[in-house]
Amino acid sequence: MIHIHFLTPPDGRLLGFAISGHAGWGEEGADIVCAAVSSAAYLVMNTITDVLAVTPLSLRVEEGELFFRIELRDEPSCRMLFAGLKLHLGQLEEQYPEYVEVSYMEI
User: Fold this and answer.
1) 20 to 30 A from 41, CA-CA: which of 11, 68, 89, 90?
2) Closest by Cα among 65, 82, 87 to 19
């Protein structure tokens, strides 16, 4: 299962995400659930870092793990991207509930 934790301060704004695990929907390299989650996460990360030129507070990419967090001051410019990611991953969770779990982690 893929576990997605959106990182939020007490006021509920989104400052990043932590993604870990593997869906197990299909064989490695052909798992559409893993591909959908990874593609969405990389689109948001790359847009924030390379298009908006925001330097992340933390970025870690390892096999089966992705961690991305921005500074609170950068939240306004990243808000819509995180909202879109939240919507997309929430819909994947609804479609594949045994493979994707979305939750929130207060930071």
Assistant:
1) 11
2) 65
Task: Give the C-alpha separation, 79 to 12, whole Å.
Answer: 11
64 pLDDT more than 90? no
* Residue 32 near residue 25, CB atoms below 8 Å: yes
- Residue 59, helix vs strand vs coil: strand
> Among 78, 68, 63, 64, which residue's Cα sits nearest to residue 13?
78
Instruction: Indicate the burial class of 8 (C-beta count within 10 angstroms; 0-12, 13-18, 19 or more).
Output: middle
Q: Rounded mean pLDDT of the chain?
A: 96
Confidence (pLDDT) at 28: 79
Closest CA to 78 of 39, 45, 37, 42: 45
**Residue 52: what residue type?**
L
